[in-house]
Amino acid sequence: MFTSFFNRAVILIAVAVGITLSFAASPREDSGSNWVAPAEADKLENPFHKDPDAWKKVEDTYKNLCVICHGDKGHGDGIAGMALTPKPANLTSERVQKQSDGAIFWKLTNGNPPMASYKESLTEEQRWQLVNYIRHLASE
């Protein structure tokens, strides 16, 4: 009986250590930190940068396409994102928010697996509005 209890305890400890190490090895803040848009992307102008309500127009789009990986609040904690490598970016992080609108638009357009490319499935207008949605997430 003691051996059975001991074996279960060892297995539980091993599982707990494994889970802890998996989270330590892939912090959300650093996910995808080496993915950089080309310099010319910074020159792209967001046609909706002065429209404070542009993000509202793609709220449903974010919920349908992005929540599954990036989570409701954009923290990179969506249910499907847990299984991805690299982990989805925390869209509210300083690392993401300090990028230019053009760089974010470029990333939405081109993708970088496992991040999908939305060039064919979303209009240019929708992708720019999603940039505004990502900006909005940081203000919540």
Automatic annotation (TrEMBL):
Superkingdom of the source? Answer: Bacteria
GO MF terms here are: electron transfer activity; heme binding; metal ion binding
> Which segments constitute the Cytochrome c domain?
50-138
Tell me the leader sequence span. Answer: 1-24
Annotated Pfam families: Cytochrome_CBB3
Keywords, alphabetical: Heme, Iron, Metal-binding, Signal
Q: Can you say what this protein is called?
A: Cytochrome c
